[in-house]
Design brief:
Oligomer: single chain
Shape: globular
Radius of gyration: 13 Å
Distance between the termini: 37 Å
Structural class: mainly beta
Largest sheet: 7 strands, mixed
Length: about 120
């Protein structure tokens, strides 16, 4: 299984970024997909999850600002991040798991994860 993230970078507070994750090596369409993040000195935080049927969950810290989506035809997962805050600064990881327990919180410890992409938000 390979998960490859892209789209990270540096942005000012209030700005937007869109992360992408291309998946290969497994039956993408049937798996729970998610994003989690890890900031220096902090524990992993599940950010958003999406089931194969499109149902989503979000961490309270990003609700209303982040949107997770998936394109099953392209085996690609997205995370649209708007109204970014300094506290969103972290390394963001794409995650995949065959479990039916598909929540943002649970997906902070997925079966598979990518190498991560850095997001830095400055004031």
């Amino acid at each position: 299984v390979q998960l490859v993230e892209s789209g990270g970078g540096s942005v000012q507070a209030g700005g937007s970024l869109r992360l992408s994750c291309t998946a290969s090596g497994y039956t993408y369409t049937s798996y729970c997909m998610a994003w989690f993040r890890r900031a220096p000195g902090k524990e992993r935080e599940g950010v958003a999850s999406i089931e194969s049927d499109g149902r989503t969950t979000y961490a309270d810290s990003v609700k209303g600002r982040f949107t997770v989506s998936r394109d099953n035809a392209k085996n690609t997962l997205y995370l649209q991040m708007n109204s970014l805050k300094v506290e969103d600064t972290a390394k963001y990881y794409c995650a995949a798991d065959p479990s039916y327990d598909c929540t943002a919180r649970r997906m902070a410890t997925p079966f598979w994860k990518g190498q991560g992409t850095q997001v830095t938000v400055s004031s």
